[in-house]
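User: I'm preparing a small set of examples for a lab meeting where we compare how different chains pack in three dimensions. I only have the primary sequence for this one, and I'd like the structure in token form so I can line it up with the others. Please keep the answer compact; I'll paste it straight into my notes.
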Amino acid sequence: MNDSPADLVRQGYRSFAEGDIPAVLQILDPGITWHVPGRSPLSGDYHGPEGVLKFFGLCQDLPGGTLRVEADEILADGERVVVLSTVSAERHGRSWSAPEVHVWRVSGQRAVEFREFQGDQEAEDAFWSS
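Assistant: Understood. Below is the structure token output for the 130-residue chain.
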């Protein structure tokens, strides 16, 4: 059965929330580019599922496993899927929660590109860098 791009991405968020990282990696194309802006330890371009797995590891290690990503709304047009999300974590006794926009490109039942946009880049960089 062929899922729509929105369904594929929705399942990825569901799997991530359940801690099923292998299921998330299965929706990624071998050539995926995962872009995280900013100047924090998480910032950079990650390539391929192995690069994304490294990013996920940082996302869990830095906040001691407290990272949560909620897909609040999913919008799709063709191969583009936009997720309005809320990301939260705790680190060094500080709680943080912020809106983010995630833009996915899906081709052939696989995610080939991911770009993240923060609601407040400076605050997000400060949280992850402290």
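A couple of notes for your slides: The chain has a mean pLDDT of 96. The chain has one domain: 5-129.

User: Perfect, thanks.
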